Amino acid sequence: MELKKIESIIKLFGNSKLTRLKVKDGESEIILENKIFTGKNIVSSAASTSASPHNDLTAVKEKKDQEVISAPLVGTFYTAEAPGKSPFVQPGEKVKTGQTVGIIEAMKMMNEVKAKKDGIVEKVLVADGTAVEFDQPLFQLKD
Amino acid sequence: MRGIEVVASGLATTIQDIGRIKYQSAGFPSSGAIDHQAHCLANALVNNEENAATIEYCLMGPTLKFTMQTFIALTGGTVQPQLNSHIVPMNQAVPVHSGDVLKIGNLKHGRFGYLAVAGGGIQVPEVLGSKSTTLRIELGGFKGRTLEEGDLLPTCDVYTMPSLASRKVSVETNNTTQIRFVKGPQWNLFSEQAQHKFMVQTYHISNQADRMGYRLRGKAIEVSQSNMLSEGTVLGNVQITRDGSPIVLLADRQTTGGYPVIATVIAADLGKLIQFSNQMAFNFVLTDIETAVKELKQQIKKIQDLRKLWQQKRYMEPIGPARKAALKIGKLF
Amino acid sequence: MSLTNRFFNLKIDGVNNLKKVLIANRGEIAVRIIQACHLLKLKCVAVYSTADKEALHVQLADESVCIGGPDSNQSYLNQQNLLAAAEITNADAIHPGYGFLSENADFAHLCEQQNIKFIGPSSKVIALMGEKANARETMETAGVPIVPGSPRDFIDVDSGLAIAKKIGYPVMLKASAGGGGKGMRVIHSEMEFKQKFSIAQKEAQSAFNDTHMYEEKYLEHPRHVEVQLVADQQGHVVILGNRDCTLQQNHQKVIEEAPAVIVDKATQDEMFRVCIRAAKQIQYEGAGTIEFLYDAPGKFYFMEMNTRIQVEHPVTELTTQTDIVALQLRIARGEPLTNFKEVVSARGFALECRVTAKTAGQIKHLLLPSGHGIRTDRALYQGYKVPPNYDAMIAKIIAYGPDRQTTIRQMQIAIEQTVVEGIRTNLDFLMQLLQEPDFIKNTTDVNWIDLLTHAK
User: Fold this and answer.
1) Which of A1, B200, C52, C398 is the most exposed place for a label (fewest CB within 10 A)?
2) Given pLDDT bands bounded at 50, 70 and 90, which one contains residue A3?
């Protein structure tokens, strides 16, 4: 598949409301998945190999410290207090230092994730119920 | 072939070791480094045996280009050696690499200097058990002659040197102008007056001074003109010629001599004497055999102690260098 | 018994469902464990700190989880994050390696509670062997010799003399409250005892305000000899020979050997016998090492038991043709050690050198040794940045040959050809040690390197 073609598929997918798109073209295959509420798309797998969990965990990384809220510990990340309840924060919402923005469950213990600085949530980078590792960016903020 | 290339020869530059010691009876001068102590120290600094061949130079040091990697040490008369135009210290083991040029330059103090090269010294063939040069009979050393521009001296590649960082000494300059002697075999042939004169007057080294012997300047010593049979010579013998002037016999001395020997300079003080300049006034002081032996043993022990110290320090940081292959491979990256 | 037999003719009775192993460690041992997991077709999860993002073990594992910051307390010692990592990756066992949490009874206990198999003995056994006095007592009861000493403290010279007579000179007199050499004396005779006792006691009095003294047998030139064992869940104990780890610097092992050629056959048999008995008595499971001070034929004394894989396990693997890390995994999944003799005898001789970094930084040039009889366990690669946060050991070079002299020579050649540039290492130090006549003649003791390196 040509790079130009992939680019246009991604563009189309990004503008759509789809959460998953699989395109097969002869030998090559591209799967686009929308794992994030804000509608940012990740190319999770190209060609005919399946994505390993390792890749998923590190797919979104390398954000600057000051702009993100990162996981303070290893566990399962939840955006809301309980299933069905509304998320602690939504994109566009203001957060204050110390405010609870999510929960990480580890060893059957719920640990609150708190904002380390004031800001506005630009993006939620990890889907509800995702396993996260230490220091993994969870929220992207803007001033 | 790799080794040391002579770029400029310097003055009377020869290959020397501790001498051809067992062949004087067959008519071969013993030769060897004229400043034995400085030669041995240079070898100790680069972890050589004391009998490894060094380069001896007189008043003007040679300029040498290394075409291999090794360690060197310069001892003896004071020079300001430059390695690739950077001054390097004397009395210290210094690493040199292929392509390095060492300019030893003129001696600021003293007459003879030594360059020792690690890995067993200059690899010239042994003649009668020695690598030293006897110029007069064109024997030993590098083709039996002084070094000349373009000569290539064979040496070994050396990459390792235990306790490299510790291998330096400060050589104290001994300012005494007294040279100790024991009575020579013909001491009693001289009148008391002559003996007294020998001990009280000051001497200078004359212009007739070379590896064979130093003729001294001073008032004439009255000497009996009776003929004596020739005798074997001993290093440090002070013979009085017919005109009453003393000659101190040194490394390249003739094997026998017929002049009466008033004194023998003790071995421990010879190194000092041979480095004196023409301007240096000195006098002779009588001592006994016991002192002479004790002093020599002390000098030998000084170097032995240094060797022991460096051996003990081999685990002090920084350690080594100890691994030749790794250093060679490292250059390939 | 052939290698193939040992490995693949397995009885799979009672094998539990071990499928994925989390490796709670870093560096060469993490790499070593990953290799063993892959050998047994087990999935493995690497964990890493933020300082170890570019570490080799992270690349080699099937999955990896970042578990904390550079400080070990935040990462490799962070029990909560390690268990959470096991939870989110569905790992059913944790291999602790050596160091870090490998001998932490609390962590082993937490694993047991979470129903995650801690690869090693039970938390109870770890706790028992981790406490020095308890371990000594347990071993003594099991018939393992301990350094003869005074059964209790004493304050008068006569009691001291009586004990000294019983245990034999030389003895080491110590202040019970002691430390820092205060009140400590090595005593060679009854007369010396009488002369030195009161001064030593006065020293103890002024230093600790306590006149209680203690004495034990003083070993003048002790050697460190240890016995490697593996024990399965069914109660079989197998001895995989012994090792000589006498060469130590500041109590850190530097060069290790197998077998311990200094030990005569009769003493060795006796050592193995007491080790089997002790391991059975405490219901040991997994790989373990019992460390002894060896004094003379027949005279060896228990020091401690390490309830984990040891750094120097490769020398045993080479001389017994075993894979101890794989055995740990197999034992953990319930396989019995039925294909082994009780004592696997050593063949040939193996030597290990620990290569350590003296500075952190990037490895610019790297050439690790190889060739006949050479094995290198490492987590290095060219361009790797050695972080300053962890243990200094960066690689282990192991040589295997027919006898001690040949193996030493092989090791000298290997060390000489090893290139690690960009950081400072102990390779020159190792090279010099390997050439020391005392080492070659095997006449060293545990203080030998310290005496060499502290020479003025």
Assistant:
1) B200
2) low
